[in-house]
Amino acid sequence: MKYLTNISDLDLEGTYSYADYLTWRFEQSVELIKGKVFKMSPAPSVKHQRISGKFYLVIGNYLQAKSCDLFSAPFDVRLLDKKKSSRANADVYSVVQPDICVICDKDKLDEQGCVGAPDLIVEILSPGNSKREMKIKYALYEEAGVREYWIVFPSEHVLQQFVLNEQGTYQLKNSFTEDEVFQAHIFPDLAIDLAAVFVD
Amino acid sequence: MQYLTNISDLDLEGTYSYADYLTWRFEQSVELIKGKVFKMSPAPSVKHQKLVMQLSAKLFNHIAQKATACEVYPAPFDVRLLDKKKSSRANADVYSVVQPDICVICDKDKLDEQGCIGAPDLIVEILSPGNSKKEMKIKYALYEEAGVREYWIVFPSEHVLQQFVLNEQGIYQLKNSFTEDEVFQAHIFPDLEIDLAAVFVD
Fold first, then answer.
1. What pLDDT was estimated at residue A96?
2. Residues of chain B that touch chain A, judged by Cβ-Cβ distance less than 8 Å
3. Which residues of B64-86 are buried (b: 16+ CB within 10 A; e: fewer)?
4. Beta strands at A158-164 and A148-153: parallel, antiparallel or unpaired
5. B76 preceded by cis ω (within 30°)?
6. Of the residues A43, B51, B52, B66, which has the maximum number of CB atoms within 10 A of its CB?
7. Closest Cα in chain A, distance from residue B129 (Å)
8. Considering only CB atoms, which chain A residues are within 8 Å of B155?
């Protein structure tokens, strides 16, 4: 297989599949959303990684007695279009690296990562990526059927919990702030104390 | 009338009305929400004030151009909100007095010498460090109950504006989130388009 090592060899207006993605060996990580290439921010901030670490610990502790898996970025998640059911590499046009994801169906895991919708995704906003997390990935996760999506505003100490309704549309279930304790929707007995997450 | 000048003379667990509030001359501004006293942060940041300015200007220009009967007020401006069950506007019966960052009022009968009494049509609150709970939970519930038709919450660091609109049941629905350089329409002014690229100028 021939590898591409220079991202400038890509046509950023072009459409690519997971089969193409597998041939890329760029220094910078990228995500593929509906065939379009999105560069990822070079290195997340301390605040971002601290919050990500707290969620990983708290959710990981809870999942010890469950059959779900927990992954943090970098971890490739391939999402399928609503109409497409083919998992063939050349038919997959979205590959993302969520900050945190929980997958409760082992059939969705292979050597390369996850194929199909995780049950829960957490994205922590960084300066300049709000549109990607709140609009583009929001629509992608909604279409792919990710049951629960948390968006975290690190500077504002806010977490918003979006849950798919019966029509497959995200509803803002609630916003939580500062020192509130909230329950995951898909795990009603998992309570997370935000005071322990937002420690600056 | 005897004035209270020292906030430590208040019982912060107590319940106060607008009649009490009128006797206060504290150095620090306070808000009254369902009778409870909330201290306001001393002075907002430059980023916060820039956002207030940009959004107020856009709202003001629109109202001036369209010659609507609405008025825009930035903080400090007292808004007295009535409980759903209470219709009395008597000072001693009003238990919520807030100073929204920006409010738009389209009913002149709600304005008197002291400010606004009753629900504004649009309120904008810009988050500051440490006030997320007040804006997103406490005031959110208060504005919903009081019938504020549209509520924008602005996340200055994240360059996000969320638009909440009362539905027919009087419950806020997140109409949409807007980010970075998007252009959006106010719900109460469908012909007002605001370009966030011109609002989030750091």
1. 97
2. 127, 129-130, 132-133, 136-137, 140, 155-160, 174, 177, 179-182
3. eeeeeebbbbbbebbbbbbeeee
4. antiparallel
5. yes
6. B51
7. 6
8. 130, 153, 155-156, 158
ipTM: 0.87
DSSP E strand stretches across B10-148: 30-33, 36-39, 71-74, 79-81, 96-98, 102-105, 111-112, 115-117, 122-126
Residues of B in contact with A125 (CB under 8 A): 158, 160
> Sign of dihedral through CA atoms A198, B40, B45, B105?
positive
Mean local confidence (pLDDT), A95-122: 97
| Interface residues from chain A to B (CB-CB < 8 Å) | 125, 127-128, 130-131, 134-135, 138, 153-158, 172, 175, 177-180
**Chain-centre distance for alpha carbon B93:** 20
Q: How far is Cα B200 from Cα B54, in angstroms, rounded to an integer?
A: 9
Chain B residues with CB under 8 Å of A158 CB are: 127, 132, 136, 155
Residue A127 pLDDT more than 80?
yes
Residue carrying structure tokens 């004030």: B49
- Asked whether the beta carbons of B109 and B22 are under 8 A apart, the reply is no
Give the bridge partners for B154, in sequence order. B126, B161
What gap in Å lies between CA A33 and CA A40, rounded to an integer?
12
Chain A hits for B137, CB-CB cut-off 8 Å, are 175, 177, 180
Nearest chain A alpha carbon to B135: A177
Q: How many CB atoms lie within 10 A of CB A181?
A: 11
What mean pLDDT do residues A176-189 have? 96
Please write the tens of the pLDDT for every residue from A136-164: 999 999 999 999 999 999 999 999 999 99
Q: Which helix (H) or strand (E) holds B144?
A: helix B139-146
- Tokens found for residue A76: 């490739």
Taking an 8 Å cut-off on Cβ atoms, the answer to whether A134 and B177 are in contact is yes
Nearest residue, CB atoms, B132 vs list A127, A128, A158: A158
Using an 8 Å CB-CB cutoff, list chain A residues near B130. Answer: 157, 178
